[in-house]
């Protein structure tokens, strides 16, 4: 299975993950500082900033785009409960 | 105590008669004068109303919101006096909470040709509300600026998310300048006289409702006001409480004032360095946790760019402390451990923070203990549960602090202040970040 390196900058931890995994599935296990609310892409709590490898996450859905807009997301922000890792990238809490 | 007399013929909201609020627009809601607590969290001294409205256009009728399920009969009785079911073209739900969507399934059965109109954030909630009923409902989603034509009049939609659910929208009737505002500008105040110029003083209910329902979403309130303020307003028709027809703009202005970014009365000099605020709250039975608090505050205060304030929780009421926390950047909470737990005034504070936004704030916990010392960990868990960031591991000391332990407290305060200001290391957990080896996902527990 294809692997990717996902780095959580706030705790300085990188994890080799199977491609396709959602950030939420890794961040909670490794104890990164991204916090979660509804866990289903609705509340915007888990907004994260993608510092590297923006293109190595799946495209946001229409609904995620909307939630990002409503929560005043800046450029390269994503929802950690929605974004799936498809290549190396680094993230931190927004 | 007296309750509004539901049989009085002099009051427009009594009996089961609809009440005209503008040309072709009727109130068809329900009064619930005996309710004493709403949604478990709000006290309602004279009950509430569930306001719903019917708008007649030349090509059909729109129903805007419904009522709580128990009040469906009254709602339908009023509706039937202003429209036949086959005339209903559109049903608008500004917000899907059950007190406004309770009569929807039955209304859709009676008016199956009607199109349900909800905000773009509402479909998932609609599905969850109707799943037990098994009813399939056709709906259309609308966003800010979308319009529905009723022939000689138009409904325009304003998406106002988080006021107070993610799905919330307002609906504006252009020709009559009526804003169906959902829960925005509403309050739990039941008076069959219905209109703000007839019900007497209901400020306490308006302010109380804002403080508990809208206050956690101040940023979103300001965004919604930016959409609402440019509109000409003849009437604001909310889903709870009086209909605001006499100087409605006063209520918009009040929301603007209440949603201000900073309620502090102190002027900030133009050339002042921006200061981050750390509040240290503590409880102390024998003075040990108090001494820790003082040392933590002193350590934090030594970091440039931070202003630290120290409060004994025993010396104040919860409400003003919540106000302080709303405006602060960080809080440190200290409690001794008594019988394996933090002490009640601290939990009282921590259970009162849901009315303010805590997004982006930093939290920390500390305390002296006798033999077990669980309080610090429990406070940290609660802080994380409230979605605060807890970048510095909590500090516990056994009984009376030594001078060396007070030095640890000062270090703790310094690390916390640095995490808040972004100076130096981001906190004790992040000190050795570069050296951590890459781990494999399969090895994570």
From TrEMBL, chain A:
Domain of life the protein comes from: Bacteria
Leader sequence residues: none
CDD domains, per the entry: fer2
Transmembrane segments: none
Ranges where the 2Fe-2S ferredoxin-type domain occurs: 2-94
Protein name, as recorded: Ferredoxin
Species in which this protein is naturally found: Thiohalocapsa halophila
From TrEMBL, chain B:
Flavodoxin-like domain mapped to chain residues: 278-417
Domain of life: Bacteria
Keyword Ion transport: no
Family matches, as Gene3D superfamilies: 3.40.50.360, Ribonuclease Z/Hydroxyacylglutathione hydrolase-like
Keywords associated with the record: Flavoprotein, FMN
Cofactor(s) recorded in Swiss-Prot or TrEMBL: FMN
Classification via SUPFAM superfamilies: Flavoproteins (SSF52218), Metallo-hydrolase/oxidoreductase (SSF56281)
Pfam families in UniProt: Flavodoxin_1, ODP
Keyword Flavoprotein tagged: yes
PROSITE patterns: FLAVODOXIN (PS00201), FLAVODOXIN_LIKE (PS50902)
Record-stated family: In the N-terminal section; belongs to the zinc metallo-hydrolase group 3 family.
Protein name in UniProt: MBL fold metallo-hydrolase
